[in-house]
From TrEMBL:
This is FAD-binding domain-containing protein. Keywords: FAD, Flavoprotein, Oxidoreductase. InterPro entries: FAD-bd, FAD/NAD-bd_sf, FAD_monoxygenase. Residues 5-181, 300-371 form the FAD-binding domain. GO terms for molecular function: FAD binding; oxidoreductase activity. GO terms for biological process: secondary metabolite biosynthetic process. Signal peptide: none annotated. It holds the Pfam family FAD_binding_3.
Length: 425
């Protein structure tokens, strides 16, 4: 492999996973993060089977899981509930009202997903990134072509610059790199991000405290979705509920605000006792205004020369299937495999990035559509009240059941057909 320098703008879950994937393939990679350190907000993240497969293939999943499990065992020590292994089966759907009748019980025997704490997830990933390759307080303001038309120059807010042969934009929904790639930087408002008219309240509630408040459901083995009209409530067990403030402070986003418990209780006024008891246990709920990438970005616009986007920068979606990060992890994994491929070199890297985009865009967009559909179902806007198991199974099945190397094989085939790669032995 001919060496070239890769710079990742943004060290969130997707940027870091990409850095791990690239460095494991021996690629020269540096990460430039706007914040003073890598970190995540105090919330859970559901990792679907597809995301777990990516993390396992990168050799980091056991680390994530063991960190999370250690703390979980401590926190549940006074509870009658046993610390669980991976969640067996995924959602059970209940009415949010009255006696919370079961609407549907999805996949009771399928081991499909794991809920972990975002900070535990990040901590585990960070261990696999060499410190000298991580650069903080580096907020990218814009990109320009490199000197003599070679490579790309990344400009930072502090007046410094960095040069790279390949730049990957993992800088989230408000991506600066996307604006370079789509040539929209001169427009006042980014035409590819829209508020989705969706608000999300989030909080962590200690299992023991919920039980004391009169909650009777067992959330330790099954994720639960309370379905209502134009709103729903999702609960899953999260390992590592450490709430030390320096770890879990809010990101500097206007889109996230601290709100009172009363505001959330008011939003769910009239719902049944399990829901209101749970909400009464929240300490410091947050309110998220959810923006999405819309209209969808065509695959030919995921790259511009040696610059490409991944994660939320490319396909920020509604959170209703808990699938957004998983799609970004799939992007990151394919980029690692392709840029570390024995046949990739500085002279063909642009074609390799285009192959990445043409493979990843259709799948990520389908998951974007599935996530929107899921929200319509959970909020009873699908034309019926209730849950049709087969429909839900197919929305989630598409996300989860994706062989980890499928994208690589498809991209290799494209590159061989184009004459960029030689036929593999
Ligand atoms: C309420 C909610 C619940 C969700 N639940 C799930 C779930 O259960 N499972 C799941 O898979 N997904 C879930 N998602 C989606 C998931 O959070 C995102 O898809 C994922 O965090 C995107 O990761 P990212 O690395 O692409 O972007 P981000 O996490 O946004 O990271 C971007 C990084 O880039 C940095 N950055 C930004 N701008 C710049 C710049 N100009 N220069 C340098 N650095 C910059 C930021 O500081 C940050 O570190 C949820 C989303 C929401 C809103």
């Amino acid at each position: 492999m001919e060496s070239f320098r890769v710079a990742i703008v943004g060290g969130g879950v997707c940027g870091l996973t990409c850095a791990v994937g690239l460095s494991k393939q021996g690629v020269d990679v540096h990460v430039y993060e706007a914040a003073a350190k890598f970190g995540e907000i105090g919330a859970g993240i559901g990792l679907g089977r597809n995301a777990i497969n990516v993390l396992s293939s990168l050799g980091v999943y056991e680390d994530i899981r063991s960190r999370a499990m250690q703390v979980d065992a401590l926190n549940l020590k006074n509870s009658a509930r046993r610390p669980t292994d991976d969640i067996r089966g995924w959602f059970r759907y209940h009415s949010g009202m009255g006696g919370h009748e079961v609407l549907s019980d999805y996949g009771a025997n399928e081991q499909t997903a794991q809920g972990v704490h975002r900070a535990a997830f990040m901590d585990a990933l960070v261990q696999h990134v060499e410190p000298s390759r991580a650069h903080f307080n580096k907020r990218c303001t814009h990109l320009t072509e490199g000197p003599g038309g070679k490579g790309t120059t990344i400009h930072f807010q502090d007046g410094t610059t960095a040069e790279a042969d390949v730049v990957l934009g993992a800088d989230g929904i408000k991506s600066v790199v996307r604006r370079y790639v789509m040539d929209t930087a001169s427009l006042g408002v980014d035409p590819n991000v829209k508020f989705s008219n969706t608000i999300c309240y989030r909080s962590l509630v200690p299992v023991v405290r919920a039980a004391e408040a009169g909650c009777t459901f067992d959330y330790s083995e099954r994720a639960v979705c309370f379905v209502g009209e134009n709103k729903h409530l999702i609960l899953f067990t999260v390992r590592d509920p450490d709430s030390s403030p320096e770890k879990y402070s809010l990101p500097p986003l206007a889109a996230v605000q601290q709100v009172t418990k009363e505001e959330v209780l008011n939003a769910y006024k009239g719902w049944g006792p399990e829901v209101t008891n749970l909400l009464s246990c929240m300490d410091s709920p947050t309110k998220w205004s959810i923006s999405v990438v819309y209209p969808p970005i065509k695959s030919e616009n995921w790259t511009r020369g040696p610059v490409a986007i991944l994660g939320d920068a490319a396909h920020g979606m509604l959170p209703h299937l808990g699938a957004g990060a998983g799609q970004g992890l799939e992007d990151a994994y394919l980029l690692g495999q392709l840029l570390g491929h024995p046949q990739t070199k500085a002279s063909n890297v642009e074609a390799v990035l285009r192959a990445y985009a043409s493979v990843r865009q259709p799948r990520a967009h389908q998951v974007w559509e599935n996530s929107k559909r899921a929200g319509d179902i959970w909020d009873s806007r699908a034309g019926y009240y209730g849950i049709r198991v087969e429909e839900v199974r197919s929305l989630w099945g598409y996300v989860w059941h994706h062989p980890v190397d499928a994208d690589l094989h498809t991209a290799e085939e494209i590159l061989i057909t184009q004459g960029v790669f030689e036929k593999l032995q």
